[in-house]
Amino acid sequence: MISIRTCWFVGAVVCCELLSHAALVTALANGFTTNTNPIMDLFAKITGDNSSSKGGLVAPTSEMLESTHLLILPGFGNAMNDYTMDDSLVPVLRSRGWGKGNISVLPVERGDWLKVFVRGCFDIKFWQSDAAPTRAAFRWYLEKVASEVKIIKDRCGDDTKIVLVGHS
Question: What confidence category does residue 57 fall into, taking pLDDT thresholds of 50, 70 and 90?
Answer without folding.
Answer: low
